[in-house]
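Good morning C.,

I know you're traveling, so I'll keep this short. The sequence:
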Amino acid sequence: QEVCKSIKVKVIGFLDSFKTRSSRDVVTHRKEKFLKIGNEVFINGILSNPATHARNTVGTMLNVIKGPADLLAGSIGTQDPILLRRAMAEFAMFKQAQSDALKLAAQAFKDERNILDKSRMIVDSGSDPSQRFAIGIKGGSFDGEGLQKVRKGEMGIGKYVRQGFIPDLINSSGTINRLPTRALVAEDEYNKQVSFRMFLKGALVENGLRKGLDGKVFDEYVDKSFELGTNWIAKKGEELDLALKSISESKFVGLGGEQVAIGEDLFLMIRDALDYAADRTFTTKIDNTFVNAFKHPGWKPLIPFINTPLNLQQTLLKNTPVSYTHLTLPTSDLV
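The tokens, ready to paste straight into the viewer:
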């Protein structure tokens, strides 16, 4: 009876996790909780077909490769040998970046979040993470109050059943249910990592050539700057805002514990590379009153996704002849 009573309390606590003082608010929040849970199950159900993930990965990869392909075409049309070198460098980096991209994609799947830049985590529920992690409850092994203590002998099985079993059961079911969205995060992370490295390497090659560098000096500039940039983003990725405008200190702690500073040119290339990676993977955040209104959980059964379709539409428009007549960017930016 005591165990059953404890389980009942945990279940009620889960349902009342958004409980407030007003009984009317309790009913409202409970309805929202059930709606968010239903949406989470519904969206992951939509993404459960392996063919969906194959199309997402391959389709996005083709858009990533299209970047240097556009540069190559532009370099031929403008007869610019520097742009040609940049395009070739980006094609080469596509192959070179595979190992790191796959490792970081696996980490993204495990952590269920972005690695390249956590702040660019696009959730169609807006700034409300409870829509994405609706099936969850505090306590249990996730909070260090479950099987870890049982294995260490710090908690008996009976106490675990009373205190940790229900949270573990609920959280485990949520984790299993979110496997499709975890896969989606990993797929986007893979393509973002590749895109980021391709753009950064290409920008460094172009910048070095336009500065007149050549030979060993050119190779050292590109290689050292690329290593510095990737190490910096690995250290600072979780602190960055969407446009890197909030970072005033461009130093980070190096592998040997020393303070390493990056120059303004490299900092701007990193920022542009992040924007480029988001654009190529259709994850640029679209944030306005009209779009945000459709991120309310009530719209999810009708419009489960809003950010990615709008990104796809913008990409399509940018690749029409009409859009280019209004652009005043340098040729190297038309990627």
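Safe travels,
E.
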